[in-house]
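Apologies for my clumsy wording, but can you show me some protein sequence, whichever is easiest, together with the matching structure tokens, please?
=====
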Amino acid sequence: MNAELRIIFMGTPEFAVTSLKELLRAKHNIVGVITAPDRPAGRGRKIRQPAVKTYSIQHDLNIMQPPNLKDPVFLNQLKELNADLQIVVAFRMLPESIWSMPKMGTFNLHASLLPEYRGAAPINWAIINGETKTGVTTFFINDKIDTGSILLQEQTDILPDMDVGALHDKLMIMGGILIIKTIELIQSKDFEPVDQPVNDNKIAPKLNKDNSKIVWTDSLNDIYNKIRGLCPYPGAWTFVYNKNEKIEAKIYKSEKIIEDHNLAFGKIVAGKKEIKVAVKDGFLKILNLKLAGKRRMDTQSLLNGYTFDKESKML
């Protein structure tokens, strides 16, 4: 065990669990795990614990779930752990009283090649914007979001048909490996963190109802990238106007068809086995979707029990 180095780990979702696994696999001494409080989730609003907590319980780790990171009692408990280093993966913004506490600093793992795609949803926005490369970055935390000095980076390709779920899982594994390399780098004391240049052209803001809606006047490529960049979560959405009814729908998988036409953008062309939507450079063939009130399904399954009239369109 690397017991000489006392580490506190901070993280919440599944993305962070893989990094924590790598730390334990490398036999690092995790003296504390800080994660979000349990919260209600899902349709039943049942209380659900964070993925990091579930994993930490299984491995008998010391867990803390402070509702307020500035609470004096929590800060005192954190100080008593006497950590040499703190590692943050998919957590919330830390006050200086926390990130400045350990003598070796606090570093964060971010799922982009900083300074590009600072913010809450870097994996999604890299695909939405049609990037062909992305990666993971470790950097020392400072008082601004994702702007600290860079320690290490690892790059990977984004394949043309890759959705955010597949890229998330790839970067999750890469991130765990990079964290171990970063600890080794810090321990070696033979490194010079690199200041980030200013780059506000490519950002990764939080996803919301407005920026996840499909705009049918956009190009075929842009719509296709938005769909795969929001699959499986939260899902690119639109309204379907059919049989004088407007209902909400989410589209999860599609295919591009480059073809000339003179149809209005958003016009639905449905047959017995396929659904196409007219767009600027051709058609978007819908392969997997969910209509409000129905389960998510492939197009063929939907068309077995649902029909579109001649006036149907996407709004």
